[in-house]
Amino acid sequence: MDDAAENGHLEVVKWLHHNRREGCSELAMDVRAGNGHLDVLIFLHENRREGCTSAALNFAAERGQLEVVEWLCTNRTEGQPATALCVAAEHGHLAVVEYLYDAVRAKQRRSESCIRKAVRSAMEAGHPAVADQLEQKLKRQRLE
């Protein structure tokens, strides 16, 4: 089932779920998150017990999978938005950075230090536009 999930073959995953007993591992959801197969993630979430690890959110952030990041933050408890924020910033995925910025602020009282870390990650990886956007958000946050 892991291989079928890894390649985004939802119908095969469904068939295996209903007709076989081997199951799958957490890796099935983790890898799917990075590849953006939200339909497979939702099926596994609703029908399997294996779940995922914090790697799912990080893989999705690394690959710029905004819909998957949003779904994971809403429907799963694994993963730390602050860590995923740094990963998204390092890879230059501005839309994911903006979403996770809001998620971090909502979940952490002391969000500035982790956002500063994301700024450094973006700069070190050569994404000054992402770093600049985060800096602007921090300035506005201080004024609130």
What do you see in this structure?
The chain is an all-alpha fold and 144 residues long. The protein has two domains: 1-79, Ankyrin repeat-containing domain (Serine Threonine Protein Phosphatase 5, Tetratricopeptide repeat, Alpha Horseshoe), CATH 1.25.40.20; 81-144, no CATH class. Helix content is 74%, strand content 0%. It has ten helices and no strands. It has helices spanning 2-6, 10-19, 26-35, 38-47, 55-63, 66-75, 81-90, 94-107, 112-124, 128-143. Helix 3 (26-35) runs antiparallel to helix 4 and helix 9 runs antiparallel to helix 10 (128-143). The termini are far apart. InterPro entries: Ankyrin_rpt, Ankyrin_rpt-contain_sf, SecEffector_AnkRepeat. Pfam families: Ank_2.
Unreliable residue runs: none
Distance between the termini: 49 Å
Q: Kindly report the name of the CATH homologous superfamily of the largest domain.
A: Ankyrin repeat-containing domain
Fraction of residues in β-strands: under 5%
Counting helices, strands and paired strands, the structural category is mainly alpha
Number of strands: 0
Q: What's the story with the biggest beta sheet?
A: none
Total count of helical runs of at least 4 residues: 10
Net shape: elongated
The number of distinct structural domains comes to 2
CATH topology of the largest domain: Serine Threonine Protein Phosphatase 5, Tetratricopeptide repeat
Order of helices and strands: HHHHHHHHHH
Identify the CATH class of the largest domain: Mainly Alpha
Radius of gyration: 17 Å
Approximate helicity band: over 70%
